[in-house]
Amino acid sequence: MKNEEVRMTTKDIIKPENLVYQKPEIMNDVPMHYCPGCSHGVVHKLVAEVIEEMGMQDKTVGIAPVGCAVFAYNYLDIDWEEAAHGRAPALATAVKRLRPDRLVFTYQGDGDLAAIGTAETVHACNRGESIAIIFINNGIYGMTGGQMAPTTLEGMKTATCPYGRDVKLNGYPLKITNILKELEGTRYITRQSVHTAAAVRKAKKAIRKAFENSMEDKGTSVVEIVSTCASGWKLDPVQANEWMEKNMFPAYPLGDLKNVE
């Protein structure tokens, strides 16, 4: 009887007007494989919330290539296509052109989008394909062992530059989003993060705008999420957030880079 009373009380408390948080219905009830402190899980939830709020579950196609997010299809109950490493924007182009009524987005890491996929990314954006690109930038190759990525910071240590990135040897960090904003085909370019509640709200708003642009045939939108990789950085989750704020944000400042209404 007491348990029933507790359940009734809890149900009564969680009324729509009092609801603060709930799991999106399109998120599958499976445990995530991401490391503790990883930003991917938070971004997955935001993508799920936006799709659900737009009523687009049955008309969304996600494109996931290679990297930590390759198993995104396990978590979101939408249609997925898996692309070869770096080729997600090319596949997304085909899907959107064949099915313009679909909400088409890619979900890519920096090693994918800004390295092997640089050409596909640049040319899809330059053509102004009406797709949305979710770009997770943690400055490292997370899945394959913590190697240096194009976005690795100057002086940052990785498995393949254990003494820190040397620009004379490795070149400068590639600020790919800054390049994409200069292309005529891009409509909305923004850089966000999910390290605080306020940042999460801004990131969700950015994803919503990118998805709406896709459905309104307004050209390419790119939402970069400056993220943590606690395992790759050899830090605990709290330290990773602090390191990101201190080191990543100065190199990759948050905010809109381009917003054509």
Name of the CATH superfamily = Thiamin diphosphate (ThDP)-binding fold, Pyr/PP domains
N-to-C SSE series?
HHEEHEHHEEEHHEHEHHE
Question: Low-confidence runs (pLDDT<50, min 5 residues)?
Answer: none
Specify the CATH architecture. Answer: 3-Layer(aba) Sandwich
N- to C-terminal separation? 58 Å
Look at the structure and give the mean pLDDT. Answer: 91
Look at the helices and sheets and give the structural class: alpha/beta
The first-level CATH class is given as Alpha Beta
The domain count comes to 1
Spatial extent as radius of gyration: 19 Å
Helix content: 25-40%
3D architecture notes:
The chain is α/β, with parallel strands linked by helices and 261 residues long. It has one domain (34-259): Thiamin diphosphate (ThDP)-binding fold, Pyr/PP domains (Rossmann fold), CATH 3.40.50.970. The protein is built from ten helices and nine strands. The strands form two sheets. Strands 2-1-3-4-8-7-9 form a seven-stranded mixed β-sheet, with helices on both faces. α8 links the parallel β7 and β8 (220-226). α2 (40-54) crosses α8 and α4 (110-116) packs across α5 (118-127). It starts with a helix and ends with a strand.
